[in-house]
Specification:
Helix content is 67%, strand content 2%. By secondary structure, it is an all-alpha fold. The longest helix is centred in the first third of the chain and has 29 residues.
């Protein structure tokens, strides 16, 4: 929106030219995302509580989680609302990637809201059926992947980059669509599964979003992309605005979501943010680097897959409980220790992922 307004006032006030810079708009989107959540957080929590939108723990976690029963949920509405508002305010809508990113956040937030709403109205922890959820995730991912495919300006924008090598990339053509669907659906569910302890999912999302924002800026800059031997993709720099908004909103939400949590983000937050970070990785053509950064999310998802598969095939469990953060709880680890250690692991994985850019 700011870009549109500048077209009318820029000639009358050269000072306004400051707001046309990507760095300024990124800073302001981050700041507005942060302030909106911090300023409206307490009010939002009171409203959610008055609507009785409260978490029902059920039997999907350790018995120690029973004390969390009744904690307000759907905090993702505040996060995503802040991100969308900040992005609309400071983003450039002539950019081809900004609109599809907002569409991704909106669609998956709607799905998450439907799941959360059923949980709070029916007072159970199941929500909509797994098949219904995965079907809509597939449909939304298909829409987004097809849009991205037809947004391509150059064939190299469909190439998969192989870390450690300067000039090795794999062109997959139309297979870009099913591969992208797999990544988006997988990331959305992985973040959702990780969101089981206070603040466990939100900080890794912030760290990964920060790293992907740097990669997006690098990929959209001809000089930096040439220096790092990554493909130049015109317009990816604008993703910094929406990444900044999510970083700010996420930090603001952590103020209320840190142990012991005053509010949970719910599926409306985890499903949409998981899909968004996957989308950014796809746009900047660094899916493998994204996988390295998201190793904690992958570990959580794999623990569930292995647990279910082992029980169906062998009638035995591998872990005391899945996702794996519950396994550590049942081993006697305190919740804050698990959370901080998973944060530290994510920080390490993000650094390793970023190092891959220079290694090649």
């Amino acid at each position: 929106m700011i870009e549109f307004l500048l077209n009318f006032f820029l000639e009358k006030s050269p000072f306004l030219n400051l707001f046309s810079y990507l760095s300024t708009r990124t800073f302001l989107s981050t700041l507005s995302g942060l302030l909106i959540v911090l300023l409206f957080g307490e009010f939002f929590i009171k409203k959610i509580r008055s609507f009785q939108f409260q978490q029902t723990i059920g039997d999907r976690g350790p018995d120690s989680h029973k004390v969390k029963d009744g904690t307000p949920t759907m905090g993702g509405l505040l996060i995503i609302g802040s991100v969308i508002f900040s992005s609309i305010l400071w983003g450039d809508f002539s950019n081809r990637f900004l609109s599809v990113s907002l569409l991704c956040l909106f669609l998956f937030a709607i799905l998450g809201f439907a799941d959360d709403f059923k949980k709070v109205t029916e007072k159970n922890s199941k929500g909509i059926s797994s098949w219904t959820k995965i079907s809509f995730q597939f449909l939304f991912s298909l829409i987004i992947s097809v849009v991205l495919y037809f947004y391509v300006f150059e064939p190299k924008e469909l190439n998969y980059i192989v870390p450690f090598f300067k000039d090795v990339s794999i062109s997959i053509g139309i297979l870009f669509i099913p591969v992208s669907i797999f990544i988006i659906v997988g990331s959305s569910n992985a973040v959702n599964l990780t969101d089981g302890l206070d603040g466990l999912a939100i900080l890794p999302v912030i760290l990964i979003t920060s790293a992907l924002g740097l990669i997006a800026w690098s990929a959209g800059n001809t000089i930096v992309s040439d220096y790092l031997y990554i493909p130049y993709v015109e317009g990816t720099g604008e993703l910094l605005v929406i990444c900044g908004a999510l970083i700010g909103a996420g930090i603001g939400f952590l103020w209320f979501n840190a142990y012991p949590a005053q509010i949970f983000m719910g599926d409306v937050g985890s499903l949409s943010m998981g899909a968004f970070i996957a989308l950014v990785a796809i746009i900047v053509r660094h899916e493998i680097v994204f996988a390295v950064m998201s190793m904690v999310f992958i570990m959580e998802a794999l623990s569930v897959i292995l647990q279910v598969s082992s029980f169906k095939i062998r009638k035995k469990r591998i872990f005391k409980m899945a996702p794996i953060h519950h396994h550590f709880e049942l081993l006697g680890w305190k919740e804050p220790k698990i959370i901080v250690r998973f944060w530290i692991l994510t920080f390490i994985f993000v650094l390793v992922g970023l190092s891959l850019l220079k290694i090649r």
